[in-house]
Write a structure and sequence with these properties.
The complex is a heterodimer. Chain A is mostly helical. Helices cover 70% and strands 0% of the residues of chain A. Chain A has 6 helices and no strands. In chain A, helix 5 packs antiparallel against helix 6. Chain A is globular. Chain B is mainly α. Chain B contains 6 helices and no strands. The chains are: A mainly alpha, B mainly alpha.
Chain lengths: 137, 144
């Protein structure tokens, strides 16, 4: 059970938006996490900014979570579910050219038709998956 | 050098946003997706807020025909058409996201919380990405 946390959601969302805007305005790049990770393997040059951005994301969790009450994050899913989920997330985001950040924030923010459709598609398939998993118990 | 610093700061802000909004907690994500259960609408507000800031900023500050502050040009997606690959990819991504409640950003922002499972998730995700480029190559060599 988690509770609705409007304040931290709005504040965190605004920071996500500012981070993505900064990367676009200064580096001319889209803050899509899956795209940036994939770029490390598919693009031969100009990779240093990718490492810098990803290190920023990694290090951010060091900063004390002053605004969040339950900073203890536990992954309830079993190992087998985690591995299958990881495979599908990697495969799907690479084929679909983006994930929640690239399509959901940057793409929709630019009113990209592809991103709007991609986001609606993965939201629907994710909700359906949660529903089916619930039926399964 | 400035380019790297701005990328680092952007990543820090992005990651901080994920942590503060608790999108690093898979349970909050799953409870958003679980419309029929104990629904937690937080994720919708996170997206709305991020979209308001990014969308408005994009309108006001970004002119794609000009140059970014520290680079030669804006690297924006050039494909505009909705194709099968986009729909299949997004559907597969959604299944994975719905299974564990983790997507790529929160996976990275979770690494330092120290749960070994997150490393398993990231490793599997990298393999998934590798499989996709292999499949891509197969498909394009067939159509040639």
């Amino acid at each position: 059970m988690t509770d609705f946390t409007p304040f931290s959601a709005l504040l965190g969302g605004a920071l996500l938006g500012i981070g993505a805007l900064l990367l676009l305005k200064f580096n001319g790049r889209i803050a899509g996490i899956s795209g940036i990770i994939k770029g490390l393997f598919t693009s031969n040059n100009d990779n240093v900014w990718r490492y810098c951005f990803l290190i920023g994301v990694l290090v951010s969790s060091f900063i004390p979570q002053a605004f969040s009450h339950d900073s203890e994050v536990t992954l309830n899913a079993s190992w087998s579910i985690i591995i299958i989920a990881g495979l599908l997330v990697g495969l799907g985001s690479a084929l679909g050219s983006g994930c929640t950040s690239g399509h959901g924030i940057c793409g929709i923010g630019r009113l990209s038709k592809r991103s709007i459709i991609a986001t609606l598609t993965f939201m629907a398939s994710a909700a359906l998956t949660v529903f089916l998993m619930r039926l399964r118990g | 050098m400035m380019k790297l610093l701005s990328a680092l700061i952007a990543g820090l802000l992005f990651g901080l946003g994920l942590n503060i909004s608790q999108m690093t907690n898979p349970q909050k994500v799953l409870n958003f997706l679980d419309v029929s259960g104990h629904w937690d609408p937080s994720l919708a507000l996170v997206m709305a807020s991020a979209l308001a800031v990014f969308g408005l900023g994009y309108r006001l500050l970004i002119v794609p025909t000009t140059s970014p502050v520290l680079a030669d040009k804006y690297c924006l997606p050039e494909v505009k058409t909705v194709d099968k690959k986009l729909l299949i990819g997004a559907s597969i991504f959604g299944i994975g996201w719905g299974l564990a409640g983790i997507c790529p950003g929160p996976a990275l922002a979770n690494v330092l919380h120290g749960d070994a499972k997150i490393f398993g998730f990231i490793a599997a995700m990298l393999i998934g990405m590798a499989i996709s480029s292999f499949a891509d190559k197969l498909l394009s060599s067939k159509s040639e």
